[in-house]
Amino acid sequence: MGTGIDPLELRRFIVGTERSVSPKAVAALYGRAEMLARMPRRVQEWVVSHARTEGHMGFVVEPYCFFLSYEITDSDAAARLLPPHYRLVPTAMFADETPRLCAIVGAFTVHTSVFWGTRVELYVIAEDTRSGMLTWVICDYESNTINYGPGEGFARSTTERAVVTTVHTGDVVIDVRSAERPNHLEVTAALPAAKTTPLEQRLWIEGNLSVDYGGRLRRESSEPFGLVFDPDEMRQALRLPLDAVTVTSDTFGASFRAAEPFEAACFPYAQHFLTSSFSRPQAIRSRDELEDAVRGYDVE
User: Fold this and answer.
1) How far apart are CA 255 and CA 209, in angstroms?
2) Cα 208 to Cα 229: distance, rounded to the nearest angstrom
3) CA distance 16 to 143
4) Are 67 and 264 in contact (CB under 8 A)?
5) What Rg, from alpha-carbon coordinates, does the chain have?
6) pLDDT at residue number 148
7) How high is the pLDDT of residue 28?
8) pTM here?
9) 117 vs 104: CA distance, rounded Å
10) Would you call 188 exposed, middle or buried from its count of C-beta atoms within 10 A (0-12, 13-18, 19+)?
11) β partners of residue 273
12) Which of 54, 134, 196, 274 has CA atoms 20 to 30 A from the CA of 95?
């Protein structure tokens, strides 16, 4: 199914998203966020509660973001990471893959209106029983830049090193190691072996309309937030055969998932999103509403 967004409308949305990201503004916010990270949580919460909520934050995931999907082998342990009102449900990254309970590890570099850097995130995929929305529940992360989450407040860089890049041989090279936890992801993936393959639409479209926090990042009062994007950005991705992916180390979620991934995906283009600076619920629930939000984005 193709997008209903006119090419000129899409270009306006993309340019507006990129335009909202200012290196100078991000640099100024970096020092401010590090200062807030040293303050008591009650002060941080006051700052967030009094922050402006109008408008959107530009959020651009740079090309070659990479994902590994693992089957969950200890569903009780995985379920304990979820906030209340969530249940594990089977899914897969690609449309023709057999659905199963899964955890996904994503590695990407991003530039946004408030931070710029590299992240690895661990997601447990679940369904919000209140809304029926499939949800990416972020249960752990490492990053070389500032962070904010409802369960931990403001945080500084957590990494000893953070590499997500490509090389002339056609490989994606990832090496992200935490300076604070045992988390480590080291992967080399050969893109010449990949094939463009349709994605599972409920996971990638509905799931990006409902994102929440679990595990050590969880806070009881938090609400899922959503992203605004052209749904066709989630129509397909590069599917890598598993023999083209060398996972030297991946400790994210290792206690409750299979040792080897069952899928590997890479997006060879930038993905452009709008979201809120702090986690705020949004009313978008369908592809049509998502397309309307893209068309209605006010560049100014």
Assistant:
1) 28
2) 9
3) 26
4) yes
5) 18
6) 75
7) 80
8) 0.91
9) 20
10) middle
11) 59
12) 274
Q: Is 81 left (phi over 0), alpha (psi -120 to 50) or beta?
A: alpha
Contact 102, 88 (CB under 8 A): no
**Residue holding tokens 């807030």?**
36
Which token pair is 183?
A: 């988390």
Q: What residue has token string 């369960």?
A: 151
Q: What is the pLDDT of residues 174-198, one digit of tens each?
A: 999 999 999 999 999 999 999 999 9
Q: Taking CA 136 as the corner, what is the angle to CA 242 and CA 148, rounded to the nearest 5 degrees?
A: 115
What is d(CA 186, CA 197) in angstroms, rounded to the nearest whole number? 24
Neighbours of 4 (CB within 10 A): 15
HEC letters along the chain: CCCCCCHHHHHHHHHHHHHCCCHHHHHHHHHHHHHHHCCCHHHHHHHHHCCCCCCCEEEEECCCEEEEEEEECCHHHHHCCCCCCEEECCECCECCCCCECEEEEEEEEEEECCCEEEEEEEEEEEEECCCCCEEEEEEEEEECCCEEECCCEEECCCEEEEEEEECCCCEEEEEEEECCCCCEEEEEEEHHHCEEEEECHHHHHHHHHCEEECHHHCCCCCCCECCECCHHHHCEEEECCHHHEEEEEECCCCCCECCCCCEEEEECCCEEEEECCCCCCCCCCCHHHHHHHHHCCCCC
User: What is the predicted pLDDT for the residue at 218?
Assistant: 87
Name the amino acid, one letter, at 258. A
215 Rama class: left (phi>0) / alpha (psi -120 to 50) / beta: left
Q: Are 103 and 78 in contact (CB under 8 A)?
A: yes
Query: What separation in angstroms does the CA of 207 have from each of 57, 166, 259, 286, 294?
Result: 19, 27, 24, 11, 17
Q: Name the stretches of the chain with pLDDT < 50.
A: 1, 54, 278
